[in-house]
Design a protein that fits this description.
The chain has 155 residues and is mainly beta. It is built from two helices and 13 strands; from the N terminus they run ββββββββαβββββα. It is elongated and about 50 Å long. The protein starts with a strand and ends in a 6-residue tail after the last helix.
């Protein structure tokens, strides 16, 4: 199953009983040198405007218009770690190189490789003002790891 991340923000998150507990706000990934980024989980906004982390291992299924999880959620406020990247907040609108052309990222596709193991496999990019869209594999983009350095990591 493949899901494009830009469609996820605002998607309701439900527990197994069907009660809505919040909405997806972002996707947390870990960038890895020489390999595709692994999805760690979602940032979910619960009432009252509290953002918490939902690990991908607790997600039962992702459907059109909903995310269903196991029912266990740590309500501690989400704090981004130095090794994590937010897809919506930090990767979209990033300029990368595909071949020799500079292009702008407007979406990324995540795919389930094994149960509870999701990776970023595709990058949707466009070039220039005409927005000629293309979808390429993660490995064809250069400069996509730059967002790790621009987050203000120490050192």
């Amino acid at each position: 199953m493949k899901i494009f991340v830009a469609r996820l923000p605002g998607t309701p998150v439900f527990d197994p009983a069907g009660d809505q507990i919040g909405r997806v706000r972002d996707v947390v990934v870990g960038l890895r040198i020489g390999r595709r980024p692994r999805v760690h989980g979602f940032v979910v906004e619960v009432q009252p405007r509290r953002r918490v982390f939902l690990p991908i291992t607790r997600v039962r299924r992702i459907e059109a218009g909903s995310v269903v999880f196991t029912g266990r959620l740590n309500m501690r406020r989400f704090e981004q770690r130095a090794s994590e990247t937010l897809v919506i907040g930090q990767m979209l609108d990033l300029t990368v190189r595909v071949g020799d052309e500079p292009m702008t990222v407007y979406d990324v596709g995540m795919e389930e490789m094994k149960p509870y193991n999701w990776e970023i496999t595709k990058v949707a990019v466009y070039k220039g003002r005409r927005r000629e869209p293309r979808t390429v594999g993660w490995g064809r983009c250069r400069g996509s790891t730059r967002c790790r350095r621009t987050r203000g990591r120490p050192g």
